[in-house]
Amino acid sequence: MKKAIALLLALVMVLSLVACGNKTTPDTPDTPDKQEETIHIGIVTGSVSQSEDDRRGAEAFQQLYGEEKVVKIGVFEPASGDSGAGGKKEMLGMQYANQETPTVEIGGETYKVELVYADNGSSTDKAPSAASQLVSEGVSVVLGSYGSGVSIAAGPIFRDAGIPAMGVTCTNPNVTAGNDYYFRICFLDNFQSAVLSNFAKDKFAAKTAYCLGENGNEYDQGLVTFFKQAFEKAGGTVVTDSFPKDNSDFSSYLNKAKDQGCDVFFAPVSIAYSTQLVSQAASLNIGIPFLGSDTWDDNMVLQAAKGTNVQVFVSTFYAEGGNKTFDDGIKAYINGNADAKTTNGGDDTISAVTAMGYDVYYVALEALKAAGSTDPAKVMEALPGVTYDGVSGHIAFDETGDAIRDTAYIKTIDTAANVWKFVTQQKAS
User: Which domains does the chain have, with CATH numbers?
Assistant: First the structure.
């Protein structure tokens, strides 16, 4: 009986296809009003058994006419606002990785990887709606953001939706604190501040440090607090100040640091503010070396310091020259794509955040493979155990979802050659 039913179903399908094939198709091209004809095939399941040949034939037909399997990865980054330049460079690494590896094997099947973007506008007010947009798109995992404040603001949205997120360069401890659904591949602010404090002591024998951050900015204020703790613990003195949002005149802060005889000027601020600080320090002939956090590792800062006597030292996640294959590949990608080159600031200087964006994409693929599913809940289960050897180093997660890192790169600007130069690898202790 089952065999007879199977033959009957096969006969019905053949007759249906023949009927479709008998439709007359005119030789003239389709007009805008003409609707494309579609074949709809119903798949019947139940107690009816198929032969192996029947099954393979159905699968082949589905592959030929069915929809491509797609897994969506959310990109939660600033494409606008104060951190827009950094966010775009972070995305550049993801986009290059996606072009390099556009598919992933999940549960024995090949999926096309689609990056879904949501601009958080560098704003804690806009971050929740951008996060909600990604949730509504049905993403399996989220990457980002550049900027800790927006990551903290979006965290509850991802947590409540059950979608894991991976920060790329959001270094404030509060990103992952109390949120099991947020991970990150970068070092934390307390580590970065200790690294820069030690460097100030080792390089300049600094006794007094001036620290400046934006009012209400969790990234800035967190780094200032941790730097002050580390520097004072080592016997130094710290002078701290804050400036209001959208400030453009830093002369009073720069002169105060000079008048108080500070040995270093630590300003963990956005790219937009750091370029203003460098330009104004040059015009005022301040002469105090700047210590910049990872946000300063950008070719816009490079351009601001060009031809000046300003000393800039930054802590960062990657130094150009660290991985030749990656360096050659991303430079070719940037130089071969006008939009990518514009995004990168008009040249092919490799930003550390671009390398980190590249790495986080592959960590996401590893999580999807380990999960064997596109279900965010399964990806969440798999993520804590994922490890990956990226261009920025070995990536693994601790019990809070933070990256296990023990070293930062220190770079400086050669203002005459207008290039970043590697100085040293610096540890926190």
Answer: 70-187+322-397 (3.40.50.2300), 190-316+410-426 (3.40.50.2300)
